Amino acid sequence: MGGAGERGAGGDGRAGQSDGQADGARSAGGTGRDRLCGPVRSRRGVPERLAGRLRGRLRVMARRGELPTAGCIDSQTVKAADTVGAAACGYDAGKKIKGQKRHIAVDTLGLLLCLIVTAASVQDRDGAHPLLALLREKYSTINLVWADGGYAGRLVTWARYVLRLAITIVKRTDDMSGFVVLPRRWVAERTLAWLARYRRLVRIYERKPEHHEAMASQPWRAWKGTELAAILEIENINSFRVQLSQWSHQGYINKIGPALYGPIPAST
Protein backbone atom coordinates (compact mmCIF):
# COMPACT_ATOMS: atom_id res chain seq x y z
CA MET A 1 0.00 0.00 0.00
CA GLY A 2 2.96 2.35 0.33
CA GLY A 3 2.88 4.66 -2.70
CA ALA A 4 5.39 7.28 -3.76
CA GLY A 5 4.25 9.53 -0.96
CA GLU A 6 4.74 6.77 1.60
CA ARG A 7 8.28 5.70 0.69
CA GLY A 8 10.98 7.16 2.79
CA ALA A 9 8.60 7.94 5.63
CA GLY A 10 10.48 8.46 8.82
CA GLY A 11 11.05 10.96 11.53
CA ASP A 12 12.31 10.72 15.05
CA GLY A 13 9.29 12.42 16.65
CA ARG A 14 5.94 11.13 17.76
CA ALA A 15 2.65 11.79 16.02
CA GLY A 16 1.16 14.99 17.35
CA GLN A 17 4.36 15.84 19.31
CA SER A 18 7.22 18.21 18.68
CA ASP A 19 10.81 16.95 18.57
CA GLY A 20 11.44 18.35 22.03
CA GLN A 21 8.47 16.54 23.51
CA ALA A 22 9.51 13.27 21.88
CA ASP A 23 13.07 13.63 23.16
CA GLY A 24 11.72 14.30 26.64
CA ALA A 25 9.59 11.17 26.48
CA ARG A 26 12.63 9.08 25.56
CA SER A 27 15.00 10.59 28.11
CA ALA A 28 15.88 8.59 31.16
CA GLY A 29 14.93 11.42 33.47
CA GLY A 30 11.35 11.62 32.22
CA THR A 31 8.70 10.22 34.52
CA GLY A 32 5.93 7.87 33.43
CA ARG A 33 3.44 10.72 33.67
CA ASP A 34 5.56 12.88 31.35
CA ARG A 35 5.73 10.03 28.87
CA LEU A 36 2.00 9.58 28.89
CA CYS A 37 0.69 13.14 29.20
CA GLY A 38 3.59 15.35 28.21
CA PRO A 39 3.26 19.02 29.18
CA VAL A 40 -0.49 19.01 28.51
CA ARG A 41 -1.96 17.31 31.57
CA SER A 42 -5.57 17.23 30.45
CA ARG A 43 -8.08 14.44 30.36
CA ARG A 44 -8.11 14.40 26.58
CA GLY A 45 -4.31 14.39 26.35
CA VAL A 46 -3.85 10.92 27.83
CA PRO A 47 -5.75 8.79 25.26
CA GLU A 48 -4.71 11.04 22.38
CA ARG A 49 -1.01 10.63 23.09
CA LEU A 50 -1.48 6.93 23.71
CA ALA A 51 -3.12 6.59 20.29
CA GLY A 52 -0.21 8.42 18.69
CA ARG A 53 2.34 6.12 20.27
CA LEU A 54 0.34 3.02 19.37
CA ARG A 55 -0.12 4.21 15.78
CA GLY A 56 3.62 4.72 15.43
CA ARG A 57 4.36 1.25 16.77
CA LEU A 58 1.87 -0.35 14.36
CA ARG A 59 3.40 1.51 11.43
CA VAL A 60 6.89 0.37 12.36
CA MET A 61 5.66 -3.21 12.65
CA ALA A 62 4.24 -2.86 9.11
CA ARG A 63 7.68 -1.69 7.92
CA ARG A 64 6.59 1.90 7.44
CA GLY A 65 8.02 5.09 8.83
CA GLU A 66 6.71 6.05 12.24
CA LEU A 67 5.18 9.27 10.87
CA PRO A 68 2.91 9.10 7.80
CA THR A 69 3.74 10.94 4.58
CA ALA A 70 0.54 10.12 2.67
CA GLY A 71 -3.11 9.69 3.56
CA CYS A 72 -6.67 9.43 2.33
CA ILE A 73 -9.82 11.37 3.21
CA ASP A 74 -13.48 10.40 3.07
CA SER A 75 -16.78 11.07 4.84
CA GLN A 76 -19.68 9.11 6.30
CA THR A 77 -23.23 10.29 7.05
CA VAL A 78 -24.64 8.93 10.31
CA LYS A 79 -28.11 9.21 11.80
CA ALA A 80 -28.41 11.33 14.91
CA ALA A 81 -30.39 10.47 18.04
CA ASP A 82 -32.95 12.71 19.72
CA THR A 83 -30.28 13.93 22.13
CA VAL A 84 -28.56 15.84 19.30
CA GLY A 85 -29.90 19.35 18.83
CA ALA A 86 -31.57 20.36 15.58
CA ALA A 87 -29.01 23.11 15.02
CA ALA A 88 -26.19 20.55 14.84
CA CYS A 89 -28.00 18.26 12.37
CA GLY A 90 -28.65 18.45 8.66
CA TYR A 91 -30.07 16.44 5.78
CA ASP A 92 -27.87 14.59 3.30
CA ALA A 93 -29.93 14.57 0.10
CA GLY A 94 -27.64 12.06 -1.58
CA LYS A 95 -27.85 9.48 1.21
CA LYS A 96 -31.37 10.56 2.32
CA ILE A 97 -30.22 10.62 5.94
CA LYS A 98 -30.85 13.27 8.58
CA GLY A 99 -28.04 13.53 11.06
CA GLN A 100 -24.36 14.40 11.07
CA LYS A 101 -21.35 13.62 8.92
CA ARG A 102 -17.98 12.24 9.99
CA HIS A 103 -15.01 13.49 7.95
CA ILE A 104 -11.90 11.36 8.45
CA ALA A 105 -8.27 11.32 7.37
CA VAL A 106 -6.33 8.05 7.55
CA ASP A 107 -2.84 6.90 6.65
CA THR A 108 -2.09 4.24 4.04
CA LEU A 109 -2.73 1.50 6.61
CA GLY A 110 -6.20 2.85 7.41
CA LEU A 111 -5.19 4.11 10.87
CA LEU A 112 -7.19 7.15 11.91
CA LEU A 113 -5.26 10.43 11.87
CA CYS A 114 -7.92 13.14 12.17
CA LEU A 115 -11.70 13.30 12.52
CA ILE A 116 -14.19 16.16 12.54
CA VAL A 117 -18.00 16.13 12.74
CA THR A 118 -20.32 18.47 10.86
CA ALA A 119 -23.99 18.58 9.95
CA ALA A 120 -24.96 16.06 7.28
CA SER A 121 -25.89 18.91 4.91
CA VAL A 122 -22.25 20.05 4.67
CA GLN A 123 -20.65 19.10 1.36
CA ASP A 124 -17.58 16.87 1.41
CA ARG A 125 -15.29 19.53 -0.04
CA ASP A 126 -16.49 22.11 2.50
CA GLY A 127 -15.90 19.75 5.41
CA ALA A 128 -12.47 18.89 4.00
CA HIS A 129 -11.15 22.43 4.57
CA PRO A 130 -10.96 22.21 8.38
CA LEU A 131 -10.05 18.51 8.17
CA LEU A 132 -7.02 19.13 5.96
CA ALA A 133 -6.00 22.15 8.04
CA LEU A 134 -6.05 19.95 11.16
CA LEU A 135 -4.16 17.22 9.32
CA ARG A 136 -1.43 19.67 8.30
CA GLU A 137 -1.23 21.04 11.85
CA LYS A 138 -0.76 17.60 13.40
CA TYR A 139 1.38 15.93 10.70
CA SER A 140 3.80 18.18 8.88
CA THR A 141 5.31 15.12 7.16
CA ILE A 142 2.23 14.43 5.01
CA ASN A 143 2.49 15.76 1.46
CA LEU A 144 0.04 13.58 -0.51
CA VAL A 145 -3.67 12.89 0.04
CA TRP A 146 -6.02 10.71 -2.02
CA ALA A 147 -9.72 11.52 -2.30
CA ASP A 148 -12.80 10.69 -4.38
CA GLY A 149 -14.48 12.85 -7.01
CA GLY A 150 -16.53 14.74 -4.43
CA TYR A 151 -13.40 16.63 -3.39
CA ALA A 152 -12.45 17.83 -6.88
CA GLY A 153 -12.41 21.51 -7.76
CA ARG A 154 -11.24 24.49 -5.75
CA LEU A 155 -10.26 22.34 -2.77
CA VAL A 156 -7.35 20.86 -4.73
CA THR A 157 -6.00 24.31 -5.61
CA TRP A 158 -6.52 25.63 -2.07
CA ALA A 159 -4.70 22.68 -0.51
CA ARG A 160 -1.80 22.98 -2.93
CA TYR A 161 -1.08 26.68 -2.35
CA VAL A 162 -2.23 27.17 1.25
CA LEU A 163 -1.35 23.85 2.93
CA ARG A 164 1.27 22.56 0.50
CA LEU A 165 -0.71 19.32 0.14
CA ALA A 166 -1.09 17.47 -3.16
CA ILE A 167 -4.59 16.00 -3.50
CA THR A 168 -4.96 13.19 -6.04
CA ILE A 169 -8.54 12.47 -7.13
CA VAL A 170 -9.35 8.78 -7.67
CA LYS A 171 -12.47 8.50 -9.84
CA ARG A 172 -14.60 5.66 -11.11
CA THR A 173 -14.42 5.08 -14.84
CA ASP A 174 -17.52 5.05 -17.03
CA ASP A 175 -17.25 1.32 -17.74
CA MET A 176 -17.50 0.40 -14.03
CA SER A 177 -20.76 -1.02 -12.73
CA GLY A 178 -21.71 -2.19 -9.25
CA PHE A 179 -19.25 -2.39 -6.37
CA VAL A 180 -15.61 -1.96 -7.40
CA VAL A 181 -12.60 -1.68 -5.09
CA LEU A 182 -10.84 1.52 -6.12
CA PRO A 183 -7.12 2.07 -5.54
CA ARG A 184 -6.24 4.02 -2.41
CA ARG A 185 -9.86 4.99 -1.68
CA TRP A 186 -10.72 1.58 -0.27
CA VAL A 187 -8.44 2.20 2.72
CA ALA A 188 -10.55 5.09 4.04
CA GLU A 189 -13.77 3.24 3.22
CA ARG A 190 -12.55 0.26 5.24
CA THR A 191 -11.84 2.53 8.22
CA LEU A 192 -15.39 3.90 8.03
CA ALA A 193 -16.62 0.30 8.04
CA TRP A 194 -14.50 -0.39 11.12
CA LEU A 195 -16.15 2.53 12.92
CA ALA A 196 -19.62 1.34 11.91
CA ARG A 197 -18.94 -2.11 13.40
CA TYR A 198 -19.11 -0.64 16.89
CA ARG A 199 -22.71 -0.28 18.03
CA ARG A 200 -21.84 2.84 20.02
CA LEU A 201 -20.79 4.62 16.79
CA VAL A 202 -23.63 3.47 14.52
CA ARG A 203 -25.70 6.42 15.69
CA ILE A 204 -24.56 9.78 17.08
CA TYR A 205 -25.82 10.47 20.60
CA GLU A 206 -23.52 13.30 21.73
CA ARG A 207 -25.05 16.77 22.00
CA LYS A 208 -21.97 18.56 20.65
CA PRO A 209 -19.85 17.58 17.60
CA GLU A 210 -16.61 17.81 19.59
CA HIS A 211 -17.93 15.22 22.03
CA HIS A 212 -18.48 12.70 19.25
CA GLU A 213 -15.09 13.54 17.76
CA ALA A 214 -13.51 12.55 21.08
CA MET A 215 -15.62 9.38 21.29
CA ALA A 216 -14.85 8.19 17.75
CA SER A 217 -11.15 9.05 17.67
CA GLN A 218 -10.09 7.73 21.09
CA PRO A 219 -8.53 4.28 21.57
CA TRP A 220 -11.50 3.45 23.79
CA ARG A 221 -10.87 -0.23 24.29
CA ALA A 222 -9.77 -1.48 27.71
CA TRP A 223 -6.00 -1.57 28.23
CA LYS A 224 -4.05 -3.60 30.75
CA GLY A 225 -1.37 -1.87 32.77
CA THR A 226 1.28 -4.10 31.23
CA GLU A 227 0.12 -3.20 27.70
CA LEU A 228 0.31 0.51 28.45
CA ALA A 229 3.77 0.09 29.92
CA ALA A 230 4.96 -1.76 26.81
CA ILE A 231 3.60 0.91 24.45
CA LEU A 232 5.09 3.73 26.53
CA GLU A 233 8.39 1.85 26.96
CA ILE A 234 8.24 1.90 30.78
CA GLU A 235 10.34 -0.76 32.47
CA ASN A 236 9.23 -0.48 36.11
CA ILE A 237 5.74 -1.94 35.73
CA ASN A 238 4.93 -2.10 39.46
CA SER A 239 5.49 1.59 40.08
CA PHE A 240 3.66 2.37 36.84
CA ARG A 241 0.59 0.50 38.11
CA VAL A 242 0.62 2.69 41.22
CA GLN A 243 0.83 5.74 38.99
CA LEU A 244 -2.11 4.50 36.90
CA SER A 245 -4.19 4.18 40.05
CA GLN A 246 -3.35 7.78 40.99
CA TRP A 247 -4.24 9.03 37.51
CA SER A 248 -7.62 7.29 37.71
CA HIS A 249 -8.39 9.07 41.01
CA GLN A 250 -7.29 12.40 39.50
CA GLY A 251 -9.58 11.94 36.48
CA TYR A 252 -6.95 11.58 33.75
CA ILE A 253 -7.96 8.03 32.83
CA ASN A 254 -10.88 5.75 33.64
CA LYS A 255 -10.42 2.55 35.67
CA ILE A 256 -12.78 0.01 34.13
CA GLY A 257 -11.94 -3.00 36.25
CA PRO A 258 -9.05 -4.76 38.00
CA ALA A 259 -5.90 -3.73 36.10
CA LEU A 260 -8.05 -2.46 33.18
CA TYR A 261 -7.97 1.19 32.12
CA GLY A 262 -9.59 3.28 29.40
CA PRO A 263 -10.14 6.90 28.36
CA ILE A 264 -12.48 9.27 30.15
CA PRO A 265 -15.96 8.90 28.54
CA ALA A 266 -17.07 11.93 26.54
CA SER A 267 -19.93 13.70 28.29
CA THR A 268 -23.12 14.23 26.37
Give a brief rundown of this model.
By secondary structure, the protein is α+β, with helices and mostly antiparallel strands. Helix content is 38%, strand content 18%.
Describe the structure.
By secondary structure, the chain is an alpha+beta fold. It has ten helices and nine strands. It has helices at residues 19-26, 32-37, 45-61, 124-138, 154-163, 185-197, 199-202, 209-217, 225-231, 237-250; strands at 70-79, 90-92, 97-107, 112-119, 144-147, 166-169, 223-224, 254-257, 260-262. Strands 1, 2, 3, 4, 5 and 6 form a six-stranded mixed β-sheet that branches. It has a three-stranded antiparallel β-sheet with strand order 7-9-8. Helix 5 (154-163) links the parallel strand 5 and strand 6 (166-169). The protein is globular, with a radius of gyration of 19 Å. Residues 1-44 have low confidence and may be disordered.
Helices and strands, with pairings:
Layout: H1 19-26, H2 32-37, H3 45-61, E1 70-79, E2 90-92, E3 97-107, E4 112-119, H4 124-138, E5 144-147, H5 154-163, E6 166-169, H6 185-197, H7 199-202, H8 209-217, E7 223-224, H9 225-231, H10 237-250, E8 254-257, E9 260-262
Parallel strand pairs: 1-5, 5-6
Antiparallel strand pairs: 1-3, 2-3, 3-4, 7-9, 8-9
> If helices are DSSP runs of H or I spanning 4 or more residues, what is the number of helices?
10
Biggest beta sheet summary? 6 strands, mixed
Look at the structure and give the mean pLDDT: 77
Structural class: alpha+beta
| Percent in strands | 15-25%
- Give the termini separation: 38 Å
Uncertain runs are 1-44
